[in-house]
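Much of our argument rests on the idea that a fold can be written as discrete symbols. Part of our work consisted of pairing the sequence of a single chain with a tokenised description of its backbone. We regard such an encoding as a compact summary of how the chain folds. The amino acid sequence and the backbone structure tokens for this protein are reproduced below.
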Amino acid sequence: MSHTAHIPSHRKPRRSASKMALRAGVAGGVLGTIAVAGAAGPANAEPVTETIEMPTLGSLDAAGGLASAVAASAEASQQEALDQNLQTQEDAALQKAAKEAKKAKAEADRKAAAERAEEARLKAEKERQEAAARASRDSARTQLTSTSSSNDGGSSSDGGSTASDSGSQTQAPSGAAATIVAFARAQIGDAYVSGGTGPNSWDCSGLVQAAYRAAGIDLPRISYQQSSMGTEVSLSNLQPGDVLYWGSRSGSYHVAIYVGGGKYVGAQNPSSGVVEHTMDWDTPSGAVRIL
């Protein structure tokens, strides 16, 4: 073999100087700490037989992170429970509101249906009454036409009624009285309107004036003027066609026409319109005879 041939080394690789210094520093620090502790301890102290393993920085960091995680989880669970409770309350409130709205709608529908039914009933009743009133007026007007035709040559005075007619009519009116009575009865059912003079609405004196005009007799327009006409007669000696008045004769506030049988026809008031009543329904103050 050549004396220059390479001979492999069996020594371990040398550590670097920096690593050697680091190890030396750590070992020196540990030994120094032990020496100081031994010098500071009492002379008769027993030798240490156990060692306490101190927690490492890594274990402390892990414990802190775990505690934070547990706290965060607890807070999240509490928030979730609060959210669920709030959602439950909101759902319950919505359900209650929906039920109340449904109930209110059903009640409103019921009331509306009842109101429509009542309106229909009132309309049908009004139509029935109007039909009956029209039929009554048509009948009375037919009678008026027939009576007027048969009495064209008759007197303008009511000579056909010779007896008292205070309680019941014993003889049908004739002549002008029959015309007046027939006209007044033909307007039963018409409306009362203050100042009304026909043909479908009247006030009290307007109806009396029109009834007498139908018989060819002109009367003043106002009720107290009408009651001042003719001759005053007692209520026990009435004849069809007599003018009844309420109040004093020269200051009456209401008039009507006596139609016989203890009854009179007059434009009463806005709620009643033209009606026929018995004398005792509203007893007049007096009466005058114009025929």
